[in-house]
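for the recovery benchmark. tokens below, seq after
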């Protein structure tokens, strides 16, 4: 039986949580009886007991190793290049898929003729609350929507044909953050990105990169993409990058700088700037909660 689908899970010191991620894959219903699914875990130079955590899964998991930590982009590239499946799905090692994710996503891709898609998801916020995001209907997302930001959590919801990497290229290893946004911006220039408005993944609170990580990444993204955007999209892209910078300021505890950055984002593109509005609303709600 040929491998129809490969699931790539990059992992760095995630021995305590990766088991839940793998179990959520093994519990998936495959789209057809003759389909097979491989799980490719890429150990990105971990120093914990990751290999021991994988032992209970035996032959269900194929383990690849980096001698040194190379970052999420490099780990995903290693997995994608080693994948045998015609379709490749990505899952972060601290996230899980909800039941029916693969079946429903593949069915939607067949129905709409998509070669790549993401889904809605349940986001676990830092205070433990769970929200469904993003608020987007089922459709193909365009460049005009993706310049605002990477709101579809492709690290755990992206499913695409392996052949797309020959057209789009691999993830940019020069980016230590936002490499998934960069890949989607390149993708939609050659193929539509489908979006299924059904929450099919559970996204855990990830690392909290501050300005020292986010600012270089946003500068790199601007350098790569701004020149190829028409003026209206360029303004929206600049506004979206400012939202990323504002969020980084908040994570660093720099509330004034974050507020000023959000203000700049609104000035650049006041209409349709829902991400900036969402951050402002969340900060207001947190400030009003009893301590």
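predicted aa per position
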């Amino acid at each position: 039986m040929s491998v129809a689908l490969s699931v790539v899970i990059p992992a760095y010191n995630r021995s305590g949580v990766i088991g839940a991620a793998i179990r959520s894959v093994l519990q998936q219903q495959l789209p057809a009886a003759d389909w097979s699914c491989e799980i490719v875990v890429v150990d990105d130079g971990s120093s914990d007991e990751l290999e021991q955590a994988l032992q209970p899964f035996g032959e269900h998991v194929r383990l690849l190793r980096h001698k040194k930590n190379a970052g999420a982009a490099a780990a995903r590239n290693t997995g994608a290049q080693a994948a045998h499946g015609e379709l490749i799905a990505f899952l972060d090692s601290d996230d899980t898929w909800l039941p029916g994710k693969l079946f429903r996503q593949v069915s939607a891709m067949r129905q709409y003729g998509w070669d790549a898609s993401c889904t809605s998801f349940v986001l676990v916020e830092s205070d433990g609350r769970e929200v469904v995001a993003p608020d987007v209907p089922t459709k193909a997302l365009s460049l005009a929507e993706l310049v605002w930001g990477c709101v579809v959590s492709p690290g755990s919801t992206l499913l695409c044909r392996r052949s797309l990497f020959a057209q789009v290229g691999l993830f940019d290893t020069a980016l230590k953050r936002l490499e998934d946004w960069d890949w989607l911006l390149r993708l939609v220039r050659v193929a539509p990105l489908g979006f299924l408005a059904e929450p099919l993944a559970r996204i855990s609170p990830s690392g909290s990169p501050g300005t020292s990580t986010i600012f270089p990444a946003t500068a790199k993204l601007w350098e790569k993409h701004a020149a190829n955007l028409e003026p209206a999209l360029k303004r929206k892209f600049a506004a979206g990058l400012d939202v990323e910078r504002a969020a980084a300021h908040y994570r660093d505890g720099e509330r004034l700088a974050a507020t000023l950055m959000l203000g700049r984002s609104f000035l650049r593109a006041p209409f349709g700037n829902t991400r900036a509005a969402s951050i402002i609303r969340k900060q207001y709600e947190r400030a009003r909660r009893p301590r």
